[in-house]
Design a protein that fits this description.
CATH architecture of the largest domain in chain A: 3-Layer(aba) Sandwich
InterPro entries (chains A, B): Aminotrans_V_dom, Aminotrans_V_PyrdxlP_BS, Pser_aminoTfrase, PyrdxlP-dep_Trfase, PyrdxlP-dep_Trfase_major, PyrdxlP-dep_Trfase_small
Number of strands of chain A: 13
Mean pLDDT of chain A: 97
Distance between the termini of chain A: 28 Å
CATH topology of the largest domain in chain A: Aspartate Aminotransferase, domain 2
Pfam families (chains A, B): Aminotran_5 (PF00266)
Largest interface: A-B, 66 and 66 residues
Oligomer: homodimer
Strand content of chain A: 5-15%
CATH class of the largest domain in chain A: Alpha Beta
Order of helices and strands of chain A: EHHEHEHEEEEEEEHHHEHEEH
Subcellular location (chains A, B): Cytoplasm
Structural class of chain A: alpha/beta
Radius of gyration of chain A: 21 Å
Helix content of chain A: 25-40%
Number of domains of chain A: 2
Subunit structure (chains A, B): Homodimer.
EC number (chains A, B): 2.6.1.52
CATH superfamily of the largest domain in chain A: Type I PLP-dependent aspartate aminotransferase-like (Major domain)
């Protein structure tokens, strides 16, 4: 049985990447060592981390006045690091578009010395859309405006980045980094947990504009962007194997044709599924059409028992991790870059069959 | 050419572990998915993390009133987390036995609200021994006594754990965890970066006595031991693949005979090298005999040019990462659990040959 992995993260990785990593797993480039066994100060690992950064810069057209950091702790640690580094005793603006935004807001509030203002929210409508942000909503004295560009759980995404004037935009891009046409220049900080479009869990990529380094004293060295940037992500031992897998993923993306090509594929995959949902008399998307994510696509029957039946049968048919997040229910297909189009086609066929068998037209 | 990897970390891993991980790298237990692709909420990963914890508890005889946490950020993040969680507006005691102790001390001071007292230090003697700690040196009102049980760079280790009365001992055990006969009950907290005796870089193991959870408000959720313990290390996505490799390493250790057996092997390996150094007229150990580490063994000729010649020739002969730390110079052999005895024998033979060729007896 072919298995299709719709996991929201850690998620499916490109088959050629897994195969290459497997083939050199115990002997990297004839060194007699696994990448996991390389000293992080060795020339072999130095080449890996530098090449990973170079390729990510090329893929995302990251300007020279931005640092690229390979850190640990996931987006959850960024929720604290961002306000610690940028907004002590200042105001920080947040847009609330779901669970992860709420966690970011809560973490900023918990610091106790940040004035947190939520300037827009779609909470009262179950986060089914991205609220409009207009320039007049942005206090130009704020330290930053924080947005969650793609909301993994509810399946919404920003189609364009708000105009915040001179206020830097800080973006949690965990679930749609490398799957969008945003311009890095529109952001002050972009951060992303790797476990969706980049590589294995345990690696966090941070892209930060140089003028945002060192604005405040941060009392924990590991949480200080300036310290991490000065050490080129080697302040302490980084997650070396995860960085190596990320390098292979970046190389795979470049050989495929870079972001324009993968974005085209992502759009085709998403369209296939959204079209099937629109056509269906059983399944609906809870998300407003203008806010729909390319990477995370929830759908429901409106009947919890039927959703459960679908999930049980889908799992038995090789569709892994389709069950919606426990906070939402229903189904959710995460179609990250490495997810194959055949898997979407197979899902659509399965949905049509299920609909026929369960009282659909 | 056989390659022997003397890296201080990330370090050599057991060959059977690497081979098993390689064999199931693209298809874990017939799931059709790599371990890296498993959701951290899946039953397959749940079994991995629970089994890893169970095996570590068995190996180290960890009592039930201790939590085992699988975190990120390395020992360097623990340097801040320990005082944040245990000593806000209190006194914390430190023993200074080298670079890593100094970093731990500096991080505690940087918080600004911890009264840091260094109760003993071997700094004036280049950290060549572990200072004696007697009960009268311990202020019983202190929040904890911090020690670095093994000093990777200078090659010293505590042969026994000091008696600190009722003051909890917090130990950075990064470089000799699972390679000692300490008793977990003698510690309040043990922490260790995985990249020496546990698994790949990017995983940090913390063993914490339950009464030390939740003593203070910690304003960064990811840095709060209580939050991490309450979530069983799943507060956010953990470094899943690194935890899986750790599980395999723990299993390998248990099948070998557990800590008594590996400690016997470690002692034999270390003795081989220390004996060769003692016998030599060229090489000396800078470390006082009563403080010598089993896992990290520095040696020098006393002549920087000759050290360099040795390092060049050793590298050409397949001895990787023997060069001493940049802060110490000379040579350093890190003989972690997975390092094979044949590698030590080969090194000793190489040292004898080098000595003959370079004016030795």
């Amino acid at each position: 049985m072919t298995v299709y992995n719709f996991s929201a993260g850690p998620a499916v990785l490109p088959t050629p990447v897994l195969e290459q990593a497997q083939s050199e797993f115990t002997d990297y480039k004839g060194s007699g060592m696994s990448v996991m066994e390389l000293s992080h100060r060795s020339s072999l690992f130095d080449a890996i981390i530098k090449d990973a950064e170079k390729r990510l810069r090329e893929l995302m057209s990251i300007p020279d006045n931005y640092h690229v950091l390979f850190l640990q702790g996931g987006a959850s640690l960024q929720f604290s690091m961002v306000p610690l580094n940028l907004a002590q005793n200042k105001k920080a603006l947040y847009v609330n578009t779901g669970s992860w935004s709420k966690k970011a807001i809560a973490a900023a509030k918990e610091l106790g010395n940040v004035e947190v203002e939520v300037i827009a929210s779609s909470a009262k409508d179950n986060f089914t859309y991205i609220p409009e942000i207009t320039p007049d909503m942005i206090d130009q004295d704020a330290a930053y405006l924080h947005i969650t560009t793609n909301n993994t759980i509810v399946g919404t995404a920003y189609k364009s980045i708000p105009n915040a004037g001179n206020v830097p935009i800080v973006a949690d891009m965990s679930s749609n980094i490398l799957a969008n046409d945003y311009d890095v220049k529109d952001f002050g900080i972009i951060y992303a947990g790797a476990q969706k479009n980049i590589g294995p869990a345990g690696l966090t990529v941070v892209i930060i504009r140089d003028d945002l380094l060192g604005l405040y004293e941060v009392n924990e060295p590991m949480l200080d962007y300036k310290t991490q940037a000065a050490a080129n992500s080697l302040y302490n031992t980084p997650p070396t194997f995860a960085i190596y897998i990320a390098q292979l993923v970046f190389k795979w993306l470049q050989e495929l044709g870079g972001l324009p090509e993968i974005l085209k594929q992502d759009q085709e995959k998403a369209q296939l599924l959204y079209d099937a949902i629109e056509k269906s008399n059983l399944f609906t998307s809870p998300v407003r059409p203008d806010s729909r994510s390319l990477t995370n696509i929830p759908f429901v029957t409106g009947n919890a028992k039927l959703d459960q039946k679908f999930n049980v049968e889908a799992l038995a048919a090789g569709f892994e991790n389709l069950k919606g997040h426990r906070s939402v229910g229903g189904m959710r297909a995460s179609l990250y870059n490495a997810f194959p189009k055949e898997g979407v086609q197979a899902l659509v066929t399965f949905m049509e069959k299920f609909e026929k068998e369960n009282g659909g037209l």
